[in-house]
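User: Reviewer 2 asked us to show a designed sequence for the structure in our supplementary figure. I'm pasting the structure tokens here. Could you produce the per-position amino acids so we can include them in the response letter?
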């Protein structure tokens, strides 16, 4: 027996929905209250095991480093740098540049001391 979509829809519209009894929710909740609470599983790992594993890894890393250092031939010589800065210094350290640099340093120092004095005055109030 095959039903068409329209016939099935008409049959479903004609049916009444089943509803649980009024006390169904209360009965279910009472049964839930009577159940034992599940115990949370807390697995404790002994700290000695953790420290032992860490010691093994530490010994392995130390052994690799010691082996690498023992089998390395390190001979390094720094390269000699021959640079002449006299021309660059003569061009940049002009009297005007030095005066401007010192002026900016004095302004920064005054702002810094002002902030220190303001903090001390604010704490005193």
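Assistant: Here is a per-position design you can include in the supplement:
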């Amino acid at each position: 027996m095959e039903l068409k979509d329209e016939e099935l829809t008409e049959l479903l519209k004609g049916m009444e929905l089943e509803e649980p009894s009024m006390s169904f929710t209360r009965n279910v909740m009472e049964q839930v209250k009577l159940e034992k609470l599940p115990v949370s599983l807390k697995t404790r790992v002994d700290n000695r095991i953790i420290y032992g594993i860490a010691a093994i890894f530490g010994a392995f890393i130390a052994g690799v480093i010691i082996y690498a250092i023992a089998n390395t031939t390190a001979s390094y010589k720094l390269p000699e740098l021959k640079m002449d800065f006299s021309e660059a210094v003569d061009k940049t350290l002009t009297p005007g540049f030095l005066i401007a640099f010192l002026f900016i340093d004095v302004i920064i120092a005054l702002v810094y001391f002002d902030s220190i004095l303001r903090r001390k005055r604010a704490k005193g109030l």
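For the response letter, you might also mention the following. The helical segments are 5-14, 24-34, 47-70, 86-92, 95-124. Residues 95-124 form the longest helix (30 residues).
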